[in-house]
Write a structure and sequence with these properties.
The structure holds seven protein chains of seven kinds. By secondary structure, chain B is mostly helical. Chain B has one domain. Chain B is built from 20 helices and two strands. Chain B has a two-stranded antiparallel sheet with strand order 1-2. Chain B is globular and about 70 Å long. Chain D is mainly α. Chain D has one domain. Helix content of chain D is about 75%, strand content about 0%. Chain D is flat and about 50 Å long. Chain F is mostly helical. Chain F has a single domain, classed as Helix Hairpins, CATH 1.10.287. Chain F is built from three helices and no strands. By secondary structure, chain G is mainly alpha-helical. Chain G is about 75% helix and about 0% strand. The longest helix of chain G is centred in the first third of the chain and has 32 residues. The chains are: A mainly alpha, B mainly alpha, C alpha+beta, D mainly alpha, E mainly alpha, F mainly alpha, G mainly alpha. The interface between B and G is large, with 121 and 99 residues. The structure holds sodium ion (2 copies). One sodium ion (NA) binds next to helix 29 of chain G.
Chain lengths: ~110, ~500, ~110, ~90, ~140, ~100, ~775
């Protein structure tokens, strides 16, 4: 299954990057979300997969059965939450920008460079 | 005592809470100055502690490394904390006079402290993922800060700044994931111990690439710096100043940290790559600065150019070179912030940042001229101000290690820096004020809160030059700690 | 006493509801799985006799969960409800059926 | 896994749900209105709940029961929220 | 959405949702859930009313609330660090007490729990502010 | 016996969910799709929950199931209502 | 010595805080300080013999080999005397000269600082320290040259000089560091005692060249000489000081200083001599066609610098002796002539040769002074200049190898100098009165003190040079040679080859002068020829290069920072991909042992759904479809999390995904629809780049799964979660206890984002104070 999921990661990255390279700001943001999902899955995947044994430990039992690695879960969880904050801010920024300039085309954003 | 290690993070956090609860702008101003002043004291104390103990580590939550998150202050972290606190303090005062009335101080200081918190977190953390979190705290604060004025330009700059930096963040996170997948740990010292003698360490190269790019974007090195020139000149000058001295340098800090502590295998490849990047960064930034006539843009490109020097020090990778990189970094943080502060004063005096539109300031305010001259000389490497020693150490390290090409590039780039500094000086100060709409702006005498930050930083630059011996000793100790991190590893894992 | 009575009505209503539910779902499943059957959709305005909010909510929900009807809107004065009907035959019949349901609810909510 | 419920039954259930997912997904893509898509999303969320319930039987872990609660809650709020914005605009 | 039916439902749904959220928070240490999940659910529960009534006009009164939630949440987080300092342990070390409860062996309460409550409130505030800001009428 | 009942409930539940999806795809207009998408899946999940609850057979699971059922039956029609109300079918006529 | 420098520094700063009545006399005060220093050095002349020198060592940054080492030997003494002696006279002269200008505080501040820097330079015993003073002189001269900074030409000249000398300075630093690495010290004494090691090192030649770059730029050697004529934009006292005793002489000093360490090799001799000769010729040749008084003087300085460099290049006892003497000669006459030129400009209002003439009537004393100096410049007896020229010819005659060539060129150059000197005297002072913008007079005696003293010195020392030779030149010569040498100066050497050469020079020079005078056209033609042959002026070349460079920079910046956001991203992604693919290729030998399987099928199905939804999201033209498909992919991922035991994670992902969707929908209706903005070709290119990145990430993921260098730290969490942290949900325990600091950061991010979003979208409110 790791192979399939690795391919999923790769394709999510592909879609993410493809969308990042579009001219629409909205698409760009969506691309960012895909990249973010891909990254989360990558982090999750590279630590190894254990199906069906969530890391819940009962009183006194210690760890008898091989439980899933809880650490990458916590990391990804944190990353997701941070990602939420960032995405919402990006959306707000995009919205405000559109409201101010009336364009969604990134190619119009050339005034601050030169 | 050891609890103080966490305070660089918690202090800004406490001030964020206060600002959320108390909403008065007047109070916010006081809180900002007071809070950043406290940070100076705190980081000064940590600095003293480190000199006594070498490395101090706090195992957060009492969970011993590598299981919990360890906060570590070594020489490098300590000096970065002190310098950052100094800059932050200056900006807090500067903000009182230079932020436009449309930006509420109460709000500004929330993000200001957010940035500080992330910054300090990045400096003290000994954990790879935790570093990612602090990066995000810093990034999020800077996103808000850059768009705080909400003008069209700022929104546009903000979008570019944000988007390219977010890609960096994602690559960083991917790097962390891969690193954890391969080594099963996140603690930097533990990573160092695992990878030290592992012949499979070369497999870390791919993760290292991701970190390289992520930090490269953050530090604004050559093919990754686009966000910086596109955005740094857009926000209010207070915010530009805050960014100028701090943000890219965190990238440099992490570069130094990662590539001395645990990405130390395959040195051939990494050092070559770092040197090539450094060379292109210096030249590209320097050339672009030469081409511009707007102070903030010139100074922004300078940031890039000078990042090249810091990376160069890391790429040469002798103790002297790394000491040089650190020396250069702290010198640059202070001088660069200061030039931005002065640029703000010039703009305030004249109403524009366009060099072609202003002039005659030498006559009108010799004091302002001196304020500019100190950081400008520092950046241009005029002895005996800080910048000279920074460059000298790097040149010495480069030539003694046989890195002739990069040293030549560094020297030539020095000429570019000089060119731009003279340009600003000639245009804004020496040349007569052209007869235009800005000519009628009366020159207002600078108020204490306006010039004090610059005086503070300028004095620091000069003192760094005069007492370069102490500072060099310190950076050399820092470099030795980095080259031989056994004390760091021992303190974190067994302390 | 009143509470007992109401509980009884509630239980009875639940059974009624459950029955309607099973009926409705079998009906709809059949409808979905047998192609070709002609539906005759329409919008119907149904007068509301309930005067408690809870009752109104129950009615609206129940209406939507039973076969062929879907509540679309209630007027501001809470006097009529706009209902979408999938198999429209006779307006009177539909309104009567729904009136019966409302009375059942009214017994519970008062 | 467990021996009380035959895996075949669960697999059949999975297959039914997967088919449902694909069909609903098709509607999601076809639209034509946003409202149609939201309706499809609603169904998808139910399908997902179904998946989770069946899976919890498969691995014999009641813990997974918390998730349908969240999903139902969230999908409802999502539906209402999105509908709110669609009052006047489709497409 | 200005729907009478949705408004009618709001009364019930809100408390149902909030109790779910609190449950998720309270059970989080031993079961799926926790401060973030609970907070987001609670935040959405509060926001739901706004959707039903279409009432997102910016009112100073309404907008001060999210920041108070955030302030409270962050303050609780800060508060959860203090016992460890007084106990002379490394910062953020969990300090636990057992509250005697009749008929049970006692409930263990600790600073990590306080921390999670802090997260809960912060996330409520954040969710509210997000939704309020993005749905404002111009 | 238990096993069979549980299996039936699970299969029936899944079946109704599938039916809903088919209806969603087959019906011609939004209102009809809502009819299919509201009733059948709720019912399907109800059946599934009953089956699964019997399978686990612990009080907590029953309570949770009850919660879910109440919640779904409270919200599913409201959701459909919201979707339908927000649908702008260009001058919807009261009777066709 | 150190105290003198400190006194100079404090004196320069003191200017600003002097009370008003004293401020008027600041020039006198500073002159007095200079004079006191001069006396101090003079009093040590007897002490500094060939065998003895004074030195002071102050530790500064010993780790870097950077200490303050001051050294007063014969060579330093020569320069120290010149700096302070001429300094005293220049300040005196400047008092009256600067009267009419504003900002004299700044002027004297710069000038005093400059003098101090120069003094520090010549007293340096550590080469990095020397470099520091060297750079200081460059920078302070920038301020001096741009003193009339509202004139564009002044700014340009200042920039040009700083840029060229600054560049040279930096190369010199590199050279010093390079050679310093051979002996691991920058202390001159260490270099001296290890001279052979340095010369034998293979860093010798590059180090030498780099240091010479510094010396040649500073001393205005060909082809860097062009900044010097530009520097006459400075006020006359500055020019006078700059050309005689400071700035340009710094290069000469360093050349002499390093001569015992680096000299004596063929490289040294050839490179330096050749440069010197070329410079010498350039200077004298162009001096003739100048019509600006200061211009003439500037080119004669170039000539003199060429002579000095040549002599030091030849590097024989005779040549160095000549050089040391010529230093004095040149300093005396050049300072005099610049002061005179400044005086003339002040009094007549012009510096143009064509507007001058017959000044002897109005300024007789000035004429006498100038005439003496000019005679010295021409090398005519009985002035010191004659003595110098004799010695120089002698040195050239005796120079090894290239004597005849050097001799011919030297004589030619001196012929020009004789002609120029005479021409200068004739055109300015004799003949018909010119049409002066102002009526000249000779009031203001202080003006004449400086030039007068120096002209007199030229004469007196020319007549009795003995003491100068034995007390000053001899120790200097010894210092440069690194061994004791005898110096006996006398005016008459008898009839020898050198005497005949001198006579020849004077005769031919006189003839040239007569030709120039009689045939005005000659000069005009000459000038025309120059304009054709030397059509490209070096300073114009410099300006052109700078302009072109800026233009190229502009172009480059526009090309790199083009503003196309997606191309920035493209660059970053391609850069990353290339590095990653390269590393994947390098480490391709890793063994891979993960089995491929499609089971369980529902997860494979889920994967398919995710992929499809993503693809739809990428290509759909409808915003809604894009966003909803994105949501579907997100939910699919949450199910994968769920399947692989991440319950909390799955719940969070679902919650976040939904909230994100809601937010998207909230703003969507206010945004425009997607438009087709890019061509098919672009899309294909983007897709391929995306695929390149995606596929390498797949490989990385697999590699990370496969490689396990170390046992994961997670076992600790599983073991201790319940026992020590009292929680069954390990993920939650990690979040609120084991790694609570992450969560602290996380909620901070959220808080900041929330307040930020609110601020971004709410109405702006002004500050309430
Ligand atoms: Na692994
Ligand atoms: Na977290």
């Amino acid at each position: 299954m790791e192979i399939i999921l690795a391919i999923v990661v790769g394709l999510l990255y592909t879609v993410g990057v493809y969308l990042l390279l579009r001219r629409s700001i909205l698409k760009f943001i969506i691309g960012l979300i895909f990249m973010s999902n891909a990254t989360n899955l990558l982090v999750f995947l590279s630590a190894g997969l254990v199906p069906g044994s969530p890391a819940f430990v009962q009183a006194g039992s210690g760890s008898s059965a091989p439980l899933a690695d809880p650490l990458p879960q916590a990391l990804v969880l944190t990353a997701i939450v941070i990602g939420l904050g960032i995405v919402v801010f990006t959306l707000a920024l995009k919205y405000k920008f559109f409201e101010t300039t009336g364009t969604d085309d990134l190619d119009q954003l050339k005034k601050t460079d030169n | 005592m050891i609890t103080f290690v966490a305070l660089p993070i918690l202090l800004p956090f406490i001030f964020i809470i206060s600002l959320l609860v108390f909403r008065s702008d007047r109070l916010a101003g006081w809180l900002g100055v007071f809070g950043s002043g406290l940070l100076i004291l705190l980081s000064g104390y940590l600095f003293i502690l480190v000199q006594k103990h070498g490395v101090i580590a706090l195992q957060m939550g009492g969970w011993e490394a590598p299981f919990g998150i360890t906060l570590v202050v070594d020489f490098l972290s300590a000096i970065m904390l002190v310098v950052a606190a100094l800059i932050v303090f200056s900006i807090a005062i500067y903000a009182l006079r230079f932020l436009p009335k449309t930006i509420r101080l109460n709000r500004f200081f929330i993000f200001f402290f957010g940035l500080t918190m992330g910054l300090n977190g990045a400096f003290v953390t000994g954990d790879v993922f935790n570093l990612f979190v602090w990066f995000e705290v810093m990034l999020m604060s800077s996103f808000v800060l850059i768009t705080l004025g909400r003008t069209k330009e700022q929104l546009e700059g903000g979008i570019k700044y944000m988007s390219l930096n977010l890609i960096g963040s994602l690559l960083f996170l991917a790097g962390v994931g891969l690193l954890y997948g391969k080594t099963g740990t996140l603690n930097m010292a533990h990573l160092a111990e695992i990878l030290k003698n592992d012949n499979q360490a070369i497999l870390m190269n791919t993760s290292a690439v991701l970190f390289f790019v992520a930090f490269g974007i953050k530090a604004a090195v050559f093919p990754l710096y686009f966000w910086l020139p596109a955005s740094y000149h857009t926000p209010n000058i207070t915010i530009s100043s805050l960014f100028a001295g701090l943000l890219t340098k965190v990238g440099v800090y992490t570069f130094i940290r990662f590539f001395t502590l645990f990405f130390v295998h395959d040195q051939q490849f990494w050092h070559q790559l770092l040197l090539i990047t450094a060379g292109f960064t210096m030249v590209a930034g320097g050339m672009a600065a030469a081409a511009h006539y707007e102070t903030r843009r010139i100074l922004s490109y300078h940031i890039i150019s000078q990042i090249g020097y810091m990376i160069m020090g890391l790429g040469i990778f002798t103790p002297l070179a790394i000491a040089g990189a650190i020396f250069f970094t702290i010198h640059n943080m202070i001088a660069k912030t200061n030039t931005f502060l002065v640029a703000g004063m010039i703009a305030k005096a004249r109403g524009t940042f366009e060099l072609k539109e202003v002039g005659g300031l030498f006559k009108q305010s010799p004091f302002l001229a001196i304020l500019f001259m100190v950081p400008a000389f520092a950046l241009a490497g005029v002895p005996p101000i800080s910048g000279f020693f920074a460059k000298f150490i790097l040149i010495k390290a480069g030539l003694e290690n046989g890195n002739y090409v990069i040293t030549a590039v560094a020297i030539l780039t020095g000429m570019l820096t000089l060119y731009s500094m003279i340009k600003i000086w000639n245009e804004a100060f020496l040349k007569a004020q052209p007869a235009n709409e800005y000519a009628s702006t009366p020159f207002k005498k600078l108020k204490f809160a306006e010039y004090f930050p610059s005086v503070l930083l300028g004095a620091t630059s000069i003192l760094m030059g005069l007492f370069a011996a102490y500072l060099f000793d310190f950076t050399m100790n820092a470099a030795n700690q980095l080259i031989d991190p056994s004390l760091y590893i021992e303190t974190v894992l067994k302390g | 006493m009143k509470i007992l009575k109401k509980t009884y009505y509630l239980l009875a209503f639940c059974l009624f509801y459950l029955f309607k539910l099973v009926q409705s779902n079998i009906y709809i499943a059949w409808d979905i799985l047998t192609p070709g059957k002609q539906s005759n959709p329409a919008f119907v305005e149904v007068p509301v006799i309930l005067n408690s909010d809870t009752g109104l909510l129950m009615f609206s929900n129940l209406l939507s969960m039973t076969p062929g009807t879907l509540s679309l809107d209630i007027s501001r004065d809470k006097k009529t409800m706009l209902v979408h009907v999938l198999y429209y035959s006779d307006e009177e019949q539909i309104q009567n059926g729904l009136k019966e349901m409302q009375q059942k609810i009214k017994r519970i909510t008062g | 896994m467990n021996d009380s419920i035959s895996t075949t039954v669960l697999l059949i259930a999975f297959s039914l749900l997967l088919a449902a997912l694909i069909l609903a997904f098709t509607r999601l893509l076809k639209g034509p209105s946003i409202n149609d898509r939201i309706a499809a999303m609603d169904v998808i969320s139910i399908v997902v709940m179904g998946f989770i319930l069946v899976y919890s039987v498969l691995i014999n872990n009641a813990m997974y029961f918390d998730i349908p609660i969240v999903i139902s809650l969230i999908s409802f709020i999502g539906t209402v929220a999105v509908s709110t914005y669609l009052k006047h605009k489709n497409g | 959405m200005n729907s009478v039916i949705l408004q009618l439902a709001a009364k019930y749904l809100r408390w149902l949702l909030i109790s779910f959220a609190v449950l998720a928070l309270l059970r989080g240490h031993n079961n799926p859930g926790g401060g973030f999940i609970g907070g987001l659910m609670a935040g959405l529960a509060i926001v739901y009313k706004g959707f039903a009534f279409n009432a997102f006009q910016v009112k100073e009164k309404l907008l001060k609330r999210p920041e108070r939630y955030m302030g409270l949440g962050l303050f609780l987080i800060l508060l959860s660090f203090i016992p460890s300092v007084f106990a002379g342990k490394p910062l953020m070390t969990g300090i636990w007490i057992t509250v005697p409860v009749p008929f049970f062996s006692g409930i263990k309460l600790g600073t990590p729990f306080l921390f999670d409550i802090g997260v809960f409130f912060t996330v409520i505030g954040v969710t509210l502010l997000f939704v309020f800001s993005l749905t404002q009428k111009k | 016996m238990d096993k069979i009942i549980i299996s039936i409930f699970i299969l029936a539940g899944s079946f109704f969910i599938l039916v809903a999806a088919i209806g969603l795809l087959r019906f011609k207009d939004l209102y009809a799709r809502l009819h299919a998408g509201t009733k059948a899946p709720s019912f399907g999940i109800l059946l599934l929950l009953i089956g699964v609850s019997i399978y686990f057979n612990t009080p907590v699971v029953y309570i949770k199931s009850l919660f879910i059922i109440v919640f779904i039956y409270l919200t599913a029609p409201l959701g459909a209502h919201a979707i339908a109300k927000s649908f702008d079918n260009k001058g919807k006529n009261k009777k066709q | 010595m150190v105290y003198i420098l400190l006194v100079f520094l404090s004196a320069s700063l003191l200017i600003f805080i002097l009370p008003g009545w004293l401020k008027k006399q600041k020039a006198i005060l500073l002159s007095f300080v200079q004079f006191a220093a001069f006396i101090y050095f003079l009093s040590h002349v007897s002490e500094i013999t060939s065998y003895h020198s004074k030195s002071i060592f102050i530790e500064w940054i010993p780790q870097l080999g950077l200490n303050l080492e001051f050294m007063l030997d014969g060579l330093s003494m020569v320069f120290a005397l010149l700096v302070t002696g001429i300094g005293a006279l220049v300040f005196l002269y400047a008092k009256d000269y600067m009267k009419s200008y504003a900002g004299t505080d700044k002027f004297f501040f710069y000038l005093m600082l400059f003098s101090g820097a120069m003094l520090g330079l010549v007293l340096s015993g550590n080469l990095i320290q020397l470099f520091i003073f060297w750079e200081l002189t460059s920078f302070i001269s920038f301020f001096l040259i741009s003193f009339f900074h509202e004139k564009e030409s002044a700014r340009k000249a200042a920039f040009q000089s700083l840029y060229i000398t600054g560049f040279g300075g930096l190369s010199m630093l590199a050279g010093i560091v390079l050679l310093g690495s051979v002996v691991d010290s920058y202390s001159f004494s260490d270099w001296l005692s290890n001279a052979n090691a340095i010369k034998e090192s293979n860093l010798y030649l590059p180090g030498l060249l780099l240091i010479l770059a510094g010396i040649f730029t500073k001393s205005a050697q060909f082809p860097f000489h062009f900044w010097l004529p530009g520097a006459m934009q400075a006020p006359a006292p500055v020019s006078s000081y700059l050309h005689s005793a400071t700035m340009v002489k710094a290069g000469i000093f360093l050349l002499a200083r390093l001569s015992p360490v680096l000299g004596g090799t063929p490289e040294w001799t050839y490179i330096i001599s050749l440069t010197g000769v070329l410079t010498m010729l350039t200077g004298s040749y162009f001096a003739i066609t100048q019509t600006d008084l200061k211009g003439i003087l500037a080119f004669t300085t170039i000539n003199a610098l060429g002579v000095l460099v040549l002599l030091l290049g030849i590097n024989t006892t005779e040549s160095i002796k000549a050089a040391m003497l010529f230093l004095f000669i040149h300093a005396f006459y050049k300072a005099t002539l610049f002061m005179v030129a400044g005086l003339i400009e002040k009094k007549t209002g012009t510096r143009e040769l064509r507007q001058l003439g017959g000044l002897i009537k109005y300024m007789p004393l000035t004429f006498v002074i100038a005439f003496l100096a000019l005679l010295s410049m021409a090398g005519l007896p009985p002035l010191l200049g004659f003595l110098g020229k004799e010695l120089i010819y002698e040195a050239k005659v005796q120079s090894p190898g290239i004597a005849s060539m050097i001799l011919i060129l030297g004589v030619t150059s001196n012929i020009f100098m004789v002609a120029v000197s005479l021409y200068f005297a004739r055109k300015v002072f004799l003949g018909k009165p010119g049409n002066f913008p102002k009526q000249p007079n000779e009031r203001g005696a202080a003006f004449l003190i400086g030039p007068g003293v120096l002209a007199l010195l030229s004469l007196v020392l020319g007549l009795s040079p003995g003491k100068l030779g034995s007390a000053v030149i001899k120790p200097a010569l010894s210092a440069v040679l690194g061994e004791v040498a005898e110096v006996k100066l006398k005016i008459w050497h008898g009839f020898n080859q050198v005497f005949f050469l001198s006579m020849l020079t004077i005769i031919l020079g006189f003839l040239l002068y007569v030709a120039m005078l009689k045939k005005d056209k000659l000069l005009i033609y000459w000038k025309k020829i120059n304009d054709v042959v030397f059509a490209v002026q070096l300073d114009e070349v410099f300006a052109w290069v700078m302009d072109k460079f800026v233009a190229v920079s502009k172009l480059k910046t526009k090309t790199v920072q083009h503003g196309y956001h997606r191309l920035y991203i493209l660059t970053i992604i391609v850069f990353t991909s290339l590095l990653l693919w390269f590393q994947v290729f390098v480490t391709r030998s890793w063994n891979f042992d993960i089995p491929f399987t499609l089971r369980p099928f529902y997860i494979s199905g889920l994967a398919l759904v995710i992929i499809l939804a993503s693809a739809v999201s990428a290509v759909s033209r409808s915003r809604i479809v894009t966003i909803i498909s994105m949501g579907v992919a997100g939910y699919g991922i949450s199910l994968i999390f769920l399947y692989y035991s991440a319950v909390d994670l799955a719940i969070t992902q679902i919650l976040v995904e939904t909230l994100t969707l809601v937010m998207f929908m909230a703003i969507l209706q206010k945004l425009p629809r997607f438009a087709v903005l890019s061509s098919k070709k672009t899309r294909l290119r983007d897709f391929l780049i995306a695929l390149g990145f995606g596929s390498v990430m797949t490989i990385l993921a697999l590699k990370a799964v496969n490689v396990n260098l170390n046992r994961s730290i997670s076992d600790f969490y599983l073991e201790n979660s319940y026992l020590k942290a009292f929680g069954e949900n390990v993920v939650n325990v990690i979040l609120v206890d084991f790694r609570a600091l992450d969560t602290l950061g996380e909620v901070t991010v959220l808080t900041i984002a929330a307040v930020g979003v609110y601020l971004l979208l709410s109405k702006p409110k002004s500050r309430k104070l």
